[in-house]
Amino acid sequence: MAEVAEERQKSPVVDDKIHTWPHLVRVEFLVALFVMIVLTLWSVVVDAPLEEPANPTRTPNPSKAPWYFLGLQEMLVYFDPWLAGVVLPSLIIVGLMMIPFIDINQKGNGYYTFKERKIEILTFFFGFHILWVSMIIIGTFFRGPGWNLFWPWQRWDPHKVVALANVDLPYLLGFRDYFWSSVCGGVLVLGYFVFATLAFYLWILRIKGKEFLERWGMVRFLITALLFVTMLSLPAKMFLRLAFNIKYVWVTPWFNI
Amino acid sequence: MKKWEELKKDITESQVWRAIFRHGYEDTPRNRVLMVTANVWLHLHPAKVRRHGVRMRFTWCMGGLTFLMFLVTVVTGIYLMFYYRPVAEYAYADMKYLEFDMPFGMLMRNMHRWSAHAMVVFVWLHMFRVFLTGSYKPPREFNWVVGVLLLVLTLLLSFTGYLLPWDQLSIWAVTVGSNMARATPLLGHEGPFAELVGANPIYDARAFLFGGGEIGPHTLLRFYILHCIFIPLVTSLLLAIHFWRIRRDSFSGPPL
Ligand code: HEM
User: What is the CATH number of domain B55-163+215-249?
Assistant: First the structure.
């Protein structure tokens, strides 16, 4: 004990390092103990669900994926499965892995700060909390039979009548011919990406300046723009669906968007 | 106070105590370092850490708790494996047997289930913490990538386990979750451009996952092996890399 006190006196403020044993190990032990107690009590009180035996001929309505995938299932409302279930999740994973390589802001490494990295944090917050977490909450608590919206306290009425979303955007714009609707949809989707990328460029130019964009480089910019614009396409499609009942923007013989 | 000191001395210097513990623990800086470096479990830590790194405010303990939840699922999972057979005829009955007849069966099952859920929540919070402290910035980019893989593996572990009770909840949740695989572009029979590759209901991405065109007994075995052997092994490997890199890259913190 004496030696430790002595050592502390010799190096007062310069070195803020402390011994892992006992300081860190003690915190870890106490937290682990606490969590184990809560987990055990919880497990004594709340039983894991077990329903009737599996029956492939009886589909429950609604069939919900495990809660942590309900964000994906919720996206199925707005996009076809190949997008909502495959392409977008892959982009989420790849996009997350890209973060350290596209974020060249050296500040805010190893401490909490909002001021020095506002846009980064707001973007993450938007993607993670607003989109991912709130979609999980909607999927868990607000979806009933037919994947229709219900309040959590509302009775699930399997015969609830819902306006069908079956208008495509080109149709709404006056295109009746299949070929020209396809062309129109393609122009709209590609136009969205080009236009939004440009807007993204101008926005970054305004808030971060030219010097930053040069340091950032073309490749980083394009990757970030692609990820960012794709992320925004979800609220964009949600808006089209909820405001105008639009099913697809782009219909082709091979895929629909 | 004095009495207490004397009593302590009597005990720690008795022959029985000495026979068990061989030598005392002297609280010296050297011993404090040795406690960590000479212990298999504790040596994952550095011998010294920055004061603020110890504060729960910095890490929220989330990485460590994710790991704790992983360990709980491993221990309780092994217990469950003693009683569970991944065969469609038995799986559900074994769950009932486990719940009603096995000593602590229900408790073990509950703990396995809830710690798995907690692990998913904790890993998200951990990622959020690492993002907020900017701890993915150089030189820790690679460990962030390893972390994202761990996140995916955590979700897959939970998802494959979901099927095993073989009840209505599990098969339909897994059906819904896996149906997306049949829409994979090129590789799924309902995905865009499937004709080009010749994907069909019994020969596509989902059939590969299910071991057949529909969810069935073969799926159960497949998910069981993924859940109990393959994914835990890969996760453990990546965890080793993750922990090793935390040490190599040094834990993040503001420059002194
Ligand atoms: C099974 C999942 C995981 C486990 C068990 C785990 C465990 C840990 C532990 C124990 C730490 C030490 C600091 C702390 O407790 O916060 C840590 C640090 C770290 N983790 Fe994870 N982690 C996991 C997943 C992830 C994920 C999903 C990411 C990011 C996408 C990530 C990125 C990092 C990084 C960059 C560090 C270094 C932080 C620093 O130096 O401040 N990890 N991890």
Answer: 1.20.810.10
